Amino acid sequence: MLPGARWLLLLMIGSPCALSGATDPLKGSRQCLVVTSRDWGSTTGELQAFERAPADSWKPVEAAVPVTLGKKGLGWGAGLFPAPKTGPHKVEGDNKATAGIFRLGPAFGYAAADRASWIKLPYVPLTKNTEGVDDPRSRYYNQLVDRTKVAEVDWRSSEKMLRTDNLYKWGLFVAHNPGAKPGAGSCIFLHIWRNSTAATAGCTAMPEQNLVKLLRWLDRAAHPVLIQLPQHEYEALPPRLNLPTLR
Length: 247
Description:
13 strands; alpha/beta; three-stranded antiparallel beta sheet
C-alpha cells in the first residue's frame, strides 16, 4: 500500500459513526472549501475557499471558482454530517457527486514525491500500478492502492489512476464513505476538468490553475474540509455549525 493510502485508511477507520454524529463537524478546522450548486440535478457549481484563525470567523480566500459536478447532479454522501433521509443519496456507480461535509486528503498526482514538495497534505505519486478500487466486495474498497504491493488482488473493478490525459495530473481525495460501506460510493476526488461543461462520473472538477492554487494553500495542520451542497440545502444547515457566509 502506498504511504498516502495508508494514511487514508487510518483516517477512514478512525471512528466513522462518531464523526457522522458530531455536533460540530467543522471544529478544529481552519480551512474550508464550499461548493454550491443551483439544485440537486445541477452538473455545474461554484467553489469558494475560506480560512479562519482559532475562535475567529471564516474569511474568503480569493475569488470563487467554477466547477463541474456529477452527470446526475448530487446525492447525500457519508461524511462528517449525518445525511437526512429525504433527498437523493449517493450509491456506487450512480454518477452523482457527493453532498455533505467531508475531510480532505491525501493529494495525488503524476509528479514524483520530490516534485510535489510544495503540497502540504500527504501526497500519493501515481504510477501505472495505482488503482482506485470501486469493487464493493473488495477489502480495498474506496482506497487508492498499488496493486503490486497488496497481498491479494481481490477486486474486479477499479480505475487506473495514471491516465493518458491530464485529469488526474493533480487531485485530492474526498473522504466520502469513511467506513467503506459496500455500495455507498467510492473514490471521490477533486481533479482537473475537461472543460466547463463536461460533467464527471461523481467527482468535482475545475481548471488546473485553480486546483494547483488550492493544493498550494491547503495544509494538513489546518484540518481542511469540503462542504458540498445545493444552495438551498447549504442555507438550511443549522446555525450551530458556524458556516462560512457565501458571497
